[in-house]
Structure formats: structure tokens, C-alpha cells
Design goal:
Layout: H1 10-21, H2 39-58, H3 63-66, H4 80-94, E1 104-107, E2 110-113, H5 114-136, H6 144-158, H7 180-187
Antiparallel strand pairs: 1-2
Helix pairs in contact: 1-4, 1-5, 2-4, 2-5, 5-6, 6-7
Length: 197
């Protein structure tokens, strides 16, 4: 049994929910480290992925699990402050079931083994949590187990010969003695020193 098969997404989901709650209305249009995404788009992406991977964990396959994340730039609606924390809670609950980590599922229209889908959503929560914190000037301390799992997933992805670098863009070199979060962020294709302009 791997660390992922026993990983509780709840602590990292709560970190992301707290960050989202700290976003003020005037920050919604601000830039994020994710190119082309304002804060409101990042929040919309987090809401969409929480729903999609909740359903992927439940093996409840359909429109939510079959829509590619690139189909449209995500956005938020008027009820996002209630919808996002609820979806994050439901996501964490779905992945507490050992069945979520086994068998096959689908997310973003891509068939995946359950354990891989779990690794992907863990990484999404960690890296996009960092995106949101950096974009809105908030402190960020991800769940330690989720961060470790994200780093290992990103490292394995960066080493795949056909991928040509990081999961979300070319790997940004980071010193080996840098904090684990900085190394994970660099592997994701982001500059750990990014700040809003």
C-alpha cells in the first residue's frame, strides 16, 4: 500500500478552502502564477476540479468527469463562496473510500487508474493552493503528506522521457536544499519567487 492509498485529502482540501475564504472581492481580477488565469478563474478551476475528481473518486462517470479542463476558461458564479468549500469537503469524503484508489476511473475525459487520479488531484490541490495564496498575498502551509505526495508525483512526471519537462510547463530549476514546497512548485513549471506585478 502506497502513501497515496492511505492519504486523507481532507487536510489539504481545508487549507484550500481557508485560502478561498480569504479572497476579497477586489482580488478576484488579479493575476495568478497560472498563465491566463485571474484569481476568479483559479477559483472556478478549483471548483470544477473538486466536482470532477469527487465524481471520479465515486466512479460516478459522466459530464463532470468527461469535460476536458481546457474546454473553456473556468469562472465563478455568485454562489461560489458556499459551493467551493462544500465541493472540497465532498471531494475529500469521496477519496476516503479505499475503492476510490482502486480500479479505473476518468477525469477531464482521460481514463486513469484510481491511484493515478488520486495523485493528480492531490497535486492539483497543492499547486493551485500555492497559486491562490501567492496571487492573493496569503500565507501558505500545505498539508505535509499532500505536499510530499505532490512532490513525488511531479518528480516522476518530470522524469518521463516523452513529457519534456514539468507537468504544467518546463521545470524551473530550484536548489536541491530549497524547501520542499519550492521544489514542488519548480517541478510544476512555476517560479517559486513569483509575485503579483
Amino acid at each position: 500500500m502506497t502513501i497515496l492509498e492511505t492519504l486523507d485529502l481532507g487536510p489539504q482540501a481545508r487549507v484550500v478552502a481557508r485560502l478561498a475564504a480569504g479572497v476579497t472581492e477586489e482580488r478576484l481580477g488579479g493575476a495568478t502564477p497560472c498563465p491566463g488565469y485571474a484569481v476568479r478563474n483559479m477559483l472556478g478551476h478549483l471548483l470544477g476540479l473538486a466536482v470532477a475528481f469527487r465524481d471520479a473518486g465515486r466512479k460516478d462517470l459522466g459530464e463532470t468527469t468527461d469535460t476536458p479542463p481546457t474546454a473553456a476558461v473556468p469562472d465563478i458564479g455568485p454562489g461560489w463562496r458556499e459551493e467551493l468549500p462544500r465541493a472540497l469537503d465532498e471531494l475529500a469524503e469521496a477519496w476516503r473510500d479505499p475503492a476510490a484508489w482502486s480500479g479505473d476511473t476518468r477525469a477531464g475525459g482521460v481514463p486513469l487508474p484510481g491511484a493515478v487520479a488520486g495523485a493528480v488531484v492531490t497535486d492539483e490541490l497543492v499547486i493551485h493552493g500555492w497559486d491562490l495564496a501567492r496571487a492573493t498575498g496569503q500565507e501558505y502551509e500545505p498539508d505535509a503528506a499532500a505536499l510530499r505526495a505532490s512532490y513525488e508525483f511531479l518528480l516522476a512526471s518530470a522524469e518521463e522521457p516523452d513529457r519534456g519537462g514539468g507537468l504544467f510547463g518546463p521545470v524551473v530549476p530550484v536548489p536541491e536544499d530549497a524547501p520542499l514546497l519550492d521544489r514542488a512548485v519548480g517541478l510544476s513549471g512555476r517560479d517559486p519567487g513569483w509575485k503579483p506585478s
